[in-house]
Amino acid sequence: MKILVTGANGQLGCEVAKQGREQELVLTDCDTLNITDGIAVAKCMRDIKPDAVIHCAAYTNVDGAETDEDAAFRVNVVGAQNLAAGCLETGARMVYVSTDYVFDGTGRKAYREFDMVNPQTVYGRTKWQGEEMVRQILSRHYIVRTAWLYGEGNNFVRTMLRLANEQNTLRVVNDQIGSPTSTVDLATVIFKLLQTDGYGTYHATCQGHCSWYDFACEIFRQAGKQVKVEPVTTAEFPRPAKRPAYSVLDNYMLRMTIGDPVRGWQEALQVYLKNHSSC
């Protein structure tokens, strides 16, 4: 299968490249394909003629989007529109990676794929608009929502380990709940879906949930780091963009279709730390 990958230099894109070695991958990033340029995307799709597109590229600066909505819109909405149109013209299927931020985070029950969305930030709103753009243009799509992602590059796990080497005490938010998710598990889901005609919307996060404080404590426990972690509230760390208080996603559609291949978040973290012992 020939697959065009956008955002190939990002956390998920790097893992997709690893797991897709047996496929014919065409890896692109912002320096090789401007997804906001419809003409460039159309030419790329016609030249490559991929069987599928895995769209990992996104404007993910949650706080920055609050003051630069146009930039977020161009990448998350117009970029999705251009790629979906290219897929429609060339007959390719498309994976659009989305986010827990499409929900308002006020619930206390894991969100399923067809629960009402209510994004509270520019980032969440543009990702939802990108979802809708793909749905309207292309029937052969897989919209895959995830949360609290970590893999290659900068992420919460590496930040915590770096700070543990610099400080004796860390303060971490304890009133935001979600499911830490390894890019390994997410990429596994994506490639499994691409082998099916089960088009639609899916949630894909690691099993279980915790707060950022719990996550940090588990990182230090598994890494053998001696550092004091103090729980704090979101209100003590005000940010431009509102963070969802409850971001737990239920992988319901995976269980009902191909089966849910993802691991518990503690197990996935253990493997990540083993494979990234230098981080």
Automatic annotation (TrEMBL):
InterPro entries reported for this sequence: dTDP_dehydrorham_reduct, NAD(P)-bd_dom_sf, RmlD-like-bd
Molecular function as annotated in GO: dTDP-4-dehydrorhamnose reductase activity
Keyword Oxidoreductase tagged: yes
Keyword RNA-binding in annotation: no
Keywords: NADP, Oxidoreductase
Pathway: Carbohydrate biosynthesis; dTDP-L-rhamnose biosynthesis
Source superkingdom: Bacteria
EC identifiers of the protein: 1.1.1.133
CDD domains attached to this UniProt entry: dTDP_HR_like_SDR_e
Residue ranges of every copy of the RmlD-like substrate binding domain listed in the record: 1-275
Pfam families recorded: RmlD_sub_bind
Protein family per UniProt: Belongs to the dTDP-4-dehydrorhamnose reductase family.
Task performed by this protein: Catalyzes the reduction of dTDP-6-deoxy-L-lyxo-4-hexulose to yield dTDP-L-rhamnose.
Name this protein carries in UniProt: dTDP-4-dehydrorhamnose reductase
The gene coding this protein: rmlD
